[in-house]
Amino acid sequence: MICKFCDIQKTKELINFGSFPVCHKFSKGDKKIKTFKLGLSYCDYCNLFQISKPFPLNELKPIHNWINYNEPEEHLDNLVNTISKLKYINKKSIISGISYKEISTIRRFSKKGYDKNWILNPFKDLRIKDKKHNLETIQKRISSIKNIKKLKKTDVLIVRHILEHCYDIKKFINNLKKMVKKNGYIVFEVPDCEQSLLRRDYVMMWEEHIFYFTKKSFLNLLDKAGFKIEYFERYKYSYESILIAIVSIKNSSEKHSIDLSKPKVFFNNKNLVKDRLAIKKKIKKYKEKNYNICMFGTGHSALTFINILKLEKQIDMIIDDDKNKINMNLPGSSLKIKNSKILQNMNKILIFLGVNFESEKKIVKKIDKLNLKVKYFSVYKNSKYNLLKYA
Ligand SMILES: [Zn+2]
User: Fold this and answer.
1) What share of the chain has pLDDT > 70, as a percent?
2) What is the domain count for the chain?
3) What would the pLDDT profile of 150-197 be if each residue is shown by its tens digit?
């Protein structure tokens, strides 16, 4: 495959994870759903990790309207502060957001007295017709809209957690540029995959993410896309950090040389086979001691972990307290999702924590109160409950 950013270099596939269903396709009954190949490739011209072949965009459209993705927000107060101190920015500046994901940031600006702000309306501005849509449709409309100039122009455009979803990242970026006034800024935020690549953290993968950025590849892409980096920050979160860049549009075609030596990565097919075996061996030990094997959480991290490590047959129960999901089948599987009350009737359980750092703390506290024999394993390598050894 050709690199999805530079359009020049052929990418090299580092690992092929097999075929998977789309993570959000929960259904009643275990009806057959389509599966697609998931692989991770690398362009050594751009230093850019990317999905080998994106899933068909139509397949990513939500079939339920209760699926939500939450990004960590602890850093937002600081980010708002940083933006408000930028040159040319004052209380009269227009602060804007690209999608519903920016509501919480824009609200923080309003509180500080920045009252000229807007968020792109998916129906009026982007003319999306389908009520059930998410970033897959928003990114496509922003990339493909021809008369985006007719949309309002802004001083600060906030673009958090969508760049990595882009099927045509160059068109997407070009249209963003048209929405920013002279001397304006764009604020990008993406997940930082450097640790996950280094530690072979399989939950990094998600079929909705086309790109898997490191600091270098992120800054290089922004530079090559014609931006000047005005501010950069890596904000550390417990399980997955984020990369933040505030950029302005470059006037000249000056390019910066960014050291693009290949980052360390331990994803490969040999290690995958080894990890699948190691985890099955571990589970077997607990099964022999009559433990019930349970996955707590049904977000994309939990599902990616089950699918990539081929654990469907090893898991006895799948738990989620989201009432919309109760008694639904896990996508493409015969496992039914149950409420956590079911755990009260058990005496020995091995729990895979398929949730983020904050939820993990709450869940462990709740289960500890039940006084069962419990062993915890997290699907995240950075968790203190991590199961597989580092590379
Ligand atoms: Zn490339």
Assistant:
1) 98
2) 2
3) 777 999 999 999 999 999 999 999 999 999 999 999 999 999 999 999
Please tell me the distance between residue 220's alpha carbon and the centre of ligand 1 in angstroms: 10
Strands 36-43 and 12-20: antiparallel
Does residue 237 share a domain with residue 95?
yes
CA 190–ligand 1 middle distance (angstroms): 18
User: Is the pTM for the entire model greater than 0.85?
Assistant: yes
The rounded Å distance from CA 4 to ligand 1 centre is 7
Same domain, 295 and 201: no
CA of 381 to the centre of ligand 1 (A): 28
**Distance linking the first and last C-alpha atoms of the chain:** 27
Cβ neighbours for 15, distance < 8 A, ≥ 6 positions apart: 39, 40, 267, 268, 269, 272
Q: What is the pLDDT of residues 289-317, one digit of tens each?
A: 999 999 999 999 999 999 999 999 999 99
Q: Please tell me the distance between residue 227's alpha carbon and the centre of ligand 1 in angstroms.
A: 17
Q: In angstroms, what is the span from residue 139 Cα to ligand 1's centroid?
A: 20
